[in-house]
Amino acid sequence: MRHWEKDTSVKVSPYLQKFPQLNAFHGKPGFISLVGHRGARGLMPENTIEGFEYILDNDIIAIEFDVLLTKDEVPVITHDFYLSKSITRNAEGNWLLKNGPRISDLTIADLQTFDVGGVDKRSSYGSLYPEQAFLSDVRIPKLSDLLELACLPKGQNLFLLLEIKSDLSIDKRKVIEHIVFEIQKRSLSNRVVLHSFDWDLLDECRLIAPEMPRSYLSQMPESSEDLFDKPTEESSPDFTSLNCSIPEAIQAAGGHLWCPYFKDVTVDLVAEAHNLGLPVCTWTVNEVEDIENMIDTGVDGIITDYTDRAKRILKSRGLNWR
Amino acid sequence: MRHWEKDTSVKVSPYLQKFPQLNAFHGKPGFISLVGHRGARGLMPENTIEGFEYILDNDIIAIEFDVLLTKDEVPVITHDFYLSKSITRNAEGNWLLKNGPRISDLTIADLQTFDVGGVDKRSSYGSLYPEQAFLSDVRIPKLSDLLELACLPKGQNLFLLLEIKSDLSIDKRKVIEHIVFEIQKRSLSNRVVLHSFDWDLLDECRLIAPEMPRSYLSQMPESSEDLFDKPTEESSPDFTSLNCSIPEAIQAAGGHLWCPYFKDVTVDLVAEAHNLGLPVCTWTVNEVEDIENMIDTGVDGIITDYTDRAKRILKSRGLNWR
Q: Which of A51, A79, A111, A194 could form a disulfide with A44 if both were Cys (CB 3.0 to 4.6 A apart)?
């Protein structure tokens, strides 16, 4: 079945006019949104300006990335709560010997002495990204660096799926306020979707920044090995004990986008979300077969580390991504 | 192959005389140690005095459990860094609506207002333990409560595999010192093995408490789904980038016990550890088939949530556990 054959039944999001940025994550006949995961982690160092520029140069308009606060409360773009030895070199160019310190224990000045231009390919994490470019003198960016890029002519079509990382040691309100301030002062609210596993945090976003739409991440516990007994992020809802489906719960929370883990996606769930007017972008879809399967489920968008590969697959099926 | 057929080639630990408590985790012909995981989580509320007493009443002498510090620096026995809504009710008897606060943000007095006598069986976590007893008015124990139990006549044969939980926000030295103080002041050093995923923390233990042996936990990243890209605990070594085998690395670190995840255990690795004089206890082995398979690998001990089930299996094979 070709993707657009099903589209006649898809209800469009009722929020497209209020939040034009949702167009970048919404399907339409013959079209699937491609969203670069942490930039394009398969190809370029994750969560770096260099990676985001690569995306822009390669005809992708939507990126996903992660934001945390430093000790001096500067929003920065990085995934882990600590410096990861798999991707971090010190000022002398040597790999960190261990993980840490935590980002919240470092000032922005401290943080910018480290180099995140590549993965340590000997590490288990690094071995996952054999094609990633290895650069040097690359810094963890401030959120403001990326927002400035979005203000330039070359960044004028860039849309941002901004994941706010949450653990129980953060003051959620403070983190949201710092992030929202940076966006608002550049008048970029209409280019951003706020995105989190922490649904309570998203509810705070609704109060603090009602002018930005909200994207709800989910992952079912059974789609992952129960490693340390807590299968999902500590601030994520328990999806097995909801009294309704996940799309219904997101609608009830006033959400505007659903981002399920790809192993949890089914044709029926996508249809249910669409009937509720909720677009669906799935993560992190990297293997050819998985990308093909996700296209067949009718999702609106695919979040991938390999935007080039996904573009080739869409092209081969007569589909487009922008 | 029967377990003891292989035992003629097993070298015993060179540390058995120095650390007699290692006997509780060391195999011998016809014998496999059974270690109750968090007490006996399959049957009784985890990490509770009630669970530990059940173990003692049921002819098991070795228990594994987890220790953290409260805000007022009291070592307490609990697994997560925060109050988990799946196992915690408030003073009114209602399940917590969300995870948190963190244990390190609560005093012991705060903590003891909560009830951890059962799991919420509607939760994904609770659904894993359908046979667990549901009690009320059960408190997160202080480490000292368990140590006092070990000082009583009924606890005189109890041996403790004491896991020190580690994340990057803790002061490792302070945590170790508080724990060691409680043990030393009751003269229980010869009943305890210190146990952690954080090998650096274990190295601190070597300096602070050389009179207690050390157990090294491991889990290979490929034996678990790579959920949020960081497959092992943040303070655990990267086992794929060691320059030697894990048993060799533990021997080099001066370790006395190896505790691998059961999916990583092979006959060859157990034989290698034994040739280095290193006993092997594997975790967390719950299904009948997995317990059978682990017996066949020649491990010294099995850490399980279901001590009763494991006893039945050992009995049916003519083996004993103490």
A: A51
pLDDT in tens, B92-102: 999 999 899 99
Q: Which of A99, A125, A231 sits opposite B229 (nearest CB)?
A: A125
Chain centre distance of CA B303: 7
Statement: residue B260 has pLDDT above 70 = yes
Contacts A227 to B, Cβ<8 Å: 219, 224-225, 227, 231
Verify whether the Cβ–Cβ distance A227 to B219 is below 8 Å. yes
Which chain B residues contact residue A124 at CB under 8 A? 221-222, 231, 238-241
Contacts of B267 (CB under 8 A, 6+ apart): B296, B297, B298
Question: CATH number for the domain including A151?
Answer: 3.20.20.190
Could you tell me if residue A310 is inside a domain? yes
Cβ–Cβ contacts within 10 Å for residue B135, how many? Answer: 15
Radius of gyration of chain A (CA): 19
Q: Give residue for tokens 């173990």.
A: B55
% of chain A surpassing 90 pLDDT: 84
Chain A positions touching B80 (Cβ under 8 A) are: 230, 234
Q: Do B124 and A86 touch (CB under 8 A)?
A: no
Instruction: Indicate whether B132 belongs to any domain.
Output: no
Rounded to the nearest angstrom, the minimum Cα separation between A200 and chain B is 9
By a Cβ cutoff of 8 Å, what residues of chain B touch chain A?
79-82, 84-86, 98-102, 120, 122-125, 127-128, 168-169, 200, 219, 221-231, 233-235, 238-241
Residue B219 lies in domain? 3-81+157-316
Report the alpha-carbon distance of residue A228 to residue B114 in Å, rounded: 23
pLDDT band per the 50, 70, 90 thresholds, residue A173: very high
B191 within a domain of the structure (yes/no): yes
Interface test with B, best of A172, A201, A225, A263 (most B CBs within 10 A): A225
Inter-helix orientation angle B267-275/B288-297, to 10° = 40
Best of A125, A198, A232 to mutate (most B CBs within 10 Å, chain B):
A125
User: A315 near A51, Cβ under 8 Å?
Assistant: no
Instruction: Mean pLDDT check: name the lowest of A44-53, B5-14, B64-73, B134-143.
Output: B5-14
This prediction has a pTM of: 0.85
At B152 the pLDDT is 96
DSSP string of B238-304, one letter each residue: -GGG-SS-HHHHHHHTT-SEEEEBGGG--HHHHHHHHHTT--BEEB---SHHHHHHHHHHT-SEEEE
Rounded average pLDDT over A5-10: 49
Structural domain includes residue A302: yes
Q: What is d(CA B219, CA A200) in angstroms, rounded to the nearest whole number? A: 32
B137 burial class (0-12, 13-18, 19+ CB within 10 angstroms)? exposed
- Contact flag A168-B230 (C-beta cutoff 8 Å): no
Q: How far is A100 from chain B (nearest CA, A)?
A: 6
Domain count, chain B: 1
Residue among A81, A128, A168 whose CB faces B100 most closely: A168
- At residue B187, the pLDDT reads 97
Q: What would the pLDDT profile of A44-70 be if each residue is shown by its tens digit?
A: 999 999 999 999 999 999 999 999 999
Tokens representing residue A232 in the block: 């999902």
